[in-house]
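Continuing the series of single-chain predictions for the mutant panel. This is the parent chain; the variants come on the following pages.
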Amino acid sequence: MAAIPRNIHNATAECRQALEGCLAVDALKKRGWAENRLADFKLWAAGIGASAPTQASLDWRLYFQPSARIVLANLLFTLKEFVEQCKELGEFARQVQLFEMLIGSRHERQCS
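Parent structure:
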């Protein structure tokens, strides 16, 4: 299991990276799901200042509220874990699809 980031900036970067990884999974690209979730996340991060540098950052603004900062970092970590599970399921779906195609072609050859 990966370590939980200690700050919002790093947790946001890891979450964004996980969402970007979904763009390479065919099952998650259907109907623009991966692209839309990444866009939603980027809009949220930009609007709240999760990735902003120095004093504009959410980490800086929550400096005197460590419990809120920790809760948000943990939520982002949890989101990243769920996104990675979605990616794994999408990759598994592709493997199942390839297996079904292989079985189907073998069956067709045997029936011919």
